[in-house]
Amino acid sequence: MRRTRQTKILATLGPATSTPERIEALFMAGVDVFRLNFSHGGPEEHRARFDAIRALENRTGRPIAALLDLQGPKLRIGTFADGPVELEAGARFRLDLDEAPGDSARVRLPHPEIFKALAPGADLLIDDGRLKLTVERCDETHADCRVAVGGPLSERKGVNVPGAVLPLSPLTEKDRADLAFGLELGVDWVALSFVQRPEDVAEAREIIGERAWIMAKLEKPAAIDRLDEIVALSDGIMVARGDLGVEMPPEDVPVLQREIVRASRLAGKPVVVATQMLDSMVERPAPTRAEASDVATAVYDGADAVMLSAETAVGRYPVEAVEMMDRIIHRVQKDPLYRKQIEAQRAPPEETTADAMSAAARQVADTISAAAIVAYTTSGSTAVRIARERPDHPIISITPRVETARRTALVWGVHSARAPDARNLDDMVETALHQSKIDGFAASDDRIVVTAGVPFGTPGKTNLLRIARLP
After folding, report:
1. Distance CA 456, CA 85 (A)
2. Which residue from 125, 156, 165, 314 lies 20 to 30 Å from 266 (Cα-Cα)?
3. Does some domain include residue 341?
4. Does pTM surpass 0.90?
């Protein structure tokens, strides 16, 4: 099966899409990567979904990626003695560590880490920003606040602290247990929530090692201050616009989205744009025009993938949402302005052998109007670096490692395929020609560009470029 678009589709599985039949329908509609959201559902539910993905992969013969999305720390207030309260604008309200149920004057905030990071004048957002408190006095046990934006408040609502770096690990005990479970299953990507600094990615890397690729979710404004460092340490990036939109003014989010996509593309790291992309389709069979434009913007910017969350996890029209996203991507990529914009955004190659070979492969493919660029890769890095060039040609990634084939299924323009390591140059060319033909990328008399590393099977040693013609 071959996709005829470059931008990939990442879809979240949930109660609406847990059966093997539903998962297959999503894949046939266009899903390239399935997200297992560990903020919801138990381990056995996720195991069943994962097993269904792998069974589908076996039936179709196509590598399919599975992404484990960790919940991360959830900062919430405590309970109220007599049910929800009403906070009036201008009133005083205290947050503290007292375990007693709250009232209209105070409530427990069982997170001493927050109090350590606060200072007078800091803002706290509650219930996804519906309420806003401004700190007037604080210490390490409490914060006396003034209600800046009031409204009804019920128990266990979330708390956001914009502008502060909280002394918290991104990995809770639940996350560590979920991570161990997911790595044992064999997930391909791990999405790391609550990333604030590069050290958070390094902490996860110590646990994960090379067993999966790490996708840093950028949902905290503090992460933007160290964006390039976080991108450098990660294997991929997710623009988590929902949480960013809580802690930042809405008008800043589109600008940050472009900044993050640009930084990721410059570094050659896959980047996903996520959250509420076709949110109307949770309840309705068609998106709004604004939502269609939102997806199109991410495609024009060169994002590797766009993500569906509630639309496929709990929505009434999950398959239709994928089909709609697929149609939007196809339509954008037929626009002549799309190609011009992608090329205008292309970053110059870095002074490395890998980038020199990738740039050369694109230039040669352009010159000879090649049917495809075929990249032999062990670790996946060669395919990722060629994708950084955003060539106007399909990229066929050939690898002997199934985990590499699955991981690169998320990368822009990459068609992943498995084959044994080439024994010699003739074998390399023959396999590349065969794969190009059977997957429908090339026909008789077409030419392809082939990149590989000699000696074969050595990661990070791409040093060979060949032109081959199909008989």
Report:
1. 67
2. 165
3. no
4. yes
Neighbours of 269 (CB within 10 A): 23
Q: 275 and 223 in one domain?
A: yes
> What does the pLDDT average to over 131-143?
96
> For 171-186, how does the pLDDT look when each residue is reduced to its tens digit (9 = 90+)?
999 999 999 999 999 9
Same domain? 262 vs 325: yes
Same domain, 123 and 19: no
Domain final residue pick, 138, 160, 182: 160
Q: Does residue 453 or residue 161 have the better pLDDT?
A: 161
Interval 409-435 mean pLDDT: 94
| Exposure b/e, 170-209, CB count within 10 A at least 16 = b | bbbeebeebbebbbebebbbbbbbbbbbbebbeebbeebe
Residue 35: active-site member: yes
Gap between the Cα atoms of 418 and 423, Å rounded = 15
* Catalytic choice (217, 241, 385, 407): 217
Active-site residue identified among 54, 76, 174, 346? 76
Q: What is the distance between the alpha carbons of residues 53 and 30, in angstroms, rounded to a whole number?
A: 14
Which residue range forms the structural domain that includes residue 372? 353-469
- Per the annotation, the verdict on 76 as an active-site residue is yes
Tens of pLDDT, residues 244-265? 888 888 899 999 999 999 999 9
* pLDDT at residue 460 in the model: 66
